[in-house]
Design a protein that fits this description.
- The chain is mainly alpha-helical.
- It has three domains: 70 residues; 82 residues, no CATH class; 225 residues, no CATH class.
- It contains 21 helices and 13 strands.
- Strands 1-2-3 form a three-stranded antiparallel sheet. Strands 4-11-10 form a three-stranded mixed sheet.
- Strand 6 and strand 7 form a beta hairpin.
- Helix 11 packs antiparallel against helix 12, helix 12 packs antiparallel against helix 18 and helix 14 packs across helix 18.
- The longest helix is centred in the C-terminal third of the chain and has 25 residues.
- The mean pLDDT is 94.
C-alpha cells in the first residue's frame, strides 16, 4: 500500500494507543487483527492526533512535523491496517467473523463443507494406534461401573488408564493404555470395545472427533477430513459430508477449542487479501485440482502460478544443479538432524516403560530418500487410484484451510508440495524394500498419514518445521519449475555393482 492518503483517515475502530508493559513508552494495540506496534515519541504524538479524518497538511501542523515524514509514517500505519481505510475495515470484519465462528454457539454457527467431499468410516481400527488418547472426567465417570467388564474383556495386566504429568497441585492428564502401540480397548476384530457395547457416546471425545478437521473461518466452521486416517483410500468414497450435517454438528459440539484462519492472510510477503479474495483464490485452486491429471508436477506448477500471480519468479535463480542439490540436502539434512535430537531425548525402554517413536523413523525414511527418488516423485502418476487420491488429498488440504493457516499462502503451498513429494519418496522407498516396483494408493496413503502426523505434531511443527518455512517455499514454490526440470539429474550417480544375496 503505497498510495498517498490525503485526507488522512483516523485510526481504525478498536485500535488504541496504550502504554507499553514497562510503562516507558507507547504502543498501538489492535486486538482485532492481533497487532501491537511499539512507537517512539513522534509516532505516539501522530497516533494521538489521528482522531478524525483530516488533510495531510493539517495533521503535519498538529504534530509539528515535516509533512514528508508524516506522510511516510501515515503510510506505515496504513500498511499495518491501523487506519480506517475500506480495506482495513474489511480485514477487521473478516477477523471478527472468524472469531465469532470460533467462540459462538456451536448450535448455530454455519458448517461449511465442499459439495463433493465424502467420508464414511471403514472401521479399519488404524486410528486406534500410533498415539495416546486423552480421557476426561465425563468419560471416566460414564465408564466407572463398566471397568470390571472392560478389564475382563481386555485381559490387561497394566490397567485401562494411565495418568501422566502429575505435579504438586495438578491432577495430570489421563490416557487410555496402549498395548503393542494400539489402544487397550481395541479388540481382535479392530473394533472398539467401548463403542461396541455402550455406543459412541461412551468413547473419549478425541475418538469421536477424529478424523474430522474443523477450522473457524469468516464463513463459519469449515470441516474436512484429516489425512491421518489410514482408511481414507476407501472411506473417501462414502457418504457426502453435505448429507451428514447432523453428525458433523455433534462433532463440532465436542471440540473444546477451534483453530481459526489467520487474521491477516498474505498470499506472498506484503500481498494481503480479504477473505472474499482468498476464497476466490481457493476456488480457482480447487478448479485446477479438478482439471488435473496424472502429471502432478504440472498440477503443482499451475497452483504455484495461481498463488504467486504477477509475483511469480521465473524459477531461473538458483537453478544450477549444485544449488538445487545443496538446498534439497539442507532441508532434508536439517530436518534429519532435528529428528535425531528428538530421538535422543526419548528415554530407552525399561521393564516399566516403552516410549514409541516410529513416526520419526518413517519421516526420516522419506527425507533420506527424497533427492534420490526425485525422478520417480516427479514422474506422472500412471494409476487412476493414485490420481484420484492426489485430487482428494489436495481438495481436503484446501478445505482444511491449510493455506490460510500458514504464515503466508506461499509458505502453505510450499508445505503442501513438500508433503506430497515426501509422501511419495517414503512410499517408493518402502515399496522397494519389499521388492515391489509399482505403487498403489495405500502406499501413498501411508506416506500421507506419516507426513500429516509429523507436520501437525506440537513438538515438530512449530519448534522444528517452522524454521524451514522459507527454504521449503523457496525450493518447492519459487523454484519448483527448476526442481521438476532437473529431477532426473539431481540424484548422485551410482556406478556400483549391485548384487542381491538375500
Amino acid at each position: 500500500m503505497n498510495e498517498v492518503l490525503d485526507p488522512v483517515p483516523p485510526l481504525r475502530a478498536g485500535v488504541r494507543l496504550v502504554p507499553t508493559p514497562d510503562g516507558a513508552g507507547s504502543a498501538l494495540s489492535d486486538e482485532v487483527l492481533g497487532r501491537r506496534v511499539k512507537l517512539d515519541a513522534a509516532g505516539a504524538s501522530l497516533a494521538a492526533a489521528l482522531d478524525r479524518e483530516q488533510p495531510l497538511a493539517e495533521l503535519a501542523a498538529r504534530v509539528a512535523g515535516d509533512e514528508g515524514r508524516v506522510r511516510d509514517a501515515v503510510a506505515a500505519f496504513a500498511r499495518l491496517f491501523l487506519l480506517a481505510t475500506p480495506r482495513a475495515g474489511a480485514l477487521a470484519a473478516d477477523a471478527e467473523r472468524a472469531a465469532a465462528a470460533a467462540e459462538g454457539s456451536r448450535d448455530d454457527v454455519p458448517i461449511v463443507v465442499r459439495g463433493d467431499a465424502r467420508f464414511t468410516c471403514t472401521m479399519c481400527g488404524s486410528c486406534c494406534g500410533g498415539h495416546n488418547v486423552p480421557v476426561f472426567d465425563d468419560v471416566l465417570e460414564g465408564l466407572a461401573d463398566k471397568i470390571p467388564a472392560l478389564e475382563a474383556a481386555t485381559r490387561t495386566r497394566k490397567g485401562l488408564f494411565v495418568t501422566l504429568g502429575k505435579r504438586p497441585g495438578a491432577a495430570g492428564q489421563v490416557y487410555c493404555q496402549l498395548t503393542h502401540g494400539s489402544c487397550v480397548f481395541l479388540d481382535d476384530d479392530a473394533r472398539c470395545r467401548i463403542h461396541g457395547q455402550w455406543g459412541a457416546e461412551a468413547k473419549p471425545s478425541a475418538c469421536r472427533i477424529f478424523p474430522y478437521e474443523l477450522v473457524a473461518t469468516p464463513d463459519g466452521v469449515a470441516i474436512s477430513i484429516q489425512r491421518e486416517c489410514r482408511g481414507f483410500v476407501e472411506a473417501r468414497a462414502g457418504k457426502r459430508l453435505a448429507d451428514d450435517l447432523p453428525n458433523l454438528r455433534e462433532v463440532l459440539r465436542l471440540v473444546p477449542e477451534l483453530p481459526r484462519v489467520r487474521r491477516v492472510i498474505e498470499t506472498t510477503a506484503g500481498r494481503v487479501v480479504t477473505w472474499a479474495e482468498y476464497q476466490a483464490l481457493e476456488d480457482r485452486l480447487h478448479d485446477l485440482v479438478d482439471a488435473g491429471d496424472g502429471d502432478h508436477a504440472a498440477l503443482f506448477s499451475g497452483l504455484r502460478a495461481e498463488v504467486l500471480g504477477d509475483a511469480a519468479p521465473d524459477g531461473a535463480a538458483g537453478t544450477d544443479l549444485a544449488s538445487l542439490r545443496d538446498d534439497l540436502d539442507g532441508i532434508a539434512g536439517g530436518l534429519l538432524s532435528a529428528i535425531g535430537q528428538l530421538k535422543g531425548m526419548m528415554p530407552p525402554p525399561t521393564g516399566e516403560t516403552l516410549i514409541r517413536g516410529e513416526a520419526l523413523d518413517h519421516f526420516a525414511l522419506g527425507l533420506a530418500h527424497l533427492r534420490d527418488e526425485l525422478p520417480r516423485v516427479m514422474h506422472p502418476l500412471r494409476r487412476p487410484d493414485l490420481v484420484s487420491l492426489l485430487k482428494d488429498h489436495l481438495h481436503h488440504h484446501l478445505m482444511g484451510k491449510g493455506l490460510a493457516i500458514a504464515r503466508t499462502v506461499r509458505v502453505g503451498l510450499g508445505h503442501m508440495a513438500f508433503q506430497w513429494a515426501l509422501s511419495l519418496a517414503f512410499a517408493v522407498a518402502r515399496a522397494r524394500e519389499v521388492k515391489r516396483r509399482h505403487l498403489v494408493a495405500q502406499d501413498v496413503m501411508d506416506g500421507l498419514v506419516m507426513t500429516s502426523f509429523m507436520m501437525r505434531h506440537d513438538a515438530f511443527d512449530g519448534p522444528v518445521l517452522a524454521r524451514f518455512d522459507e527454504p521449503i517455499a523457496s525450493l518447492f514454490v519459487d523454484r519448483w519449475p527448476a526442481l521438476v526440470a532437473h529431477a532426473r539429474e539431481l540424484p548422485e550417480p551410482d556406478t556400483r555393482l549391485e548384487m542381491v544375496k538375500f
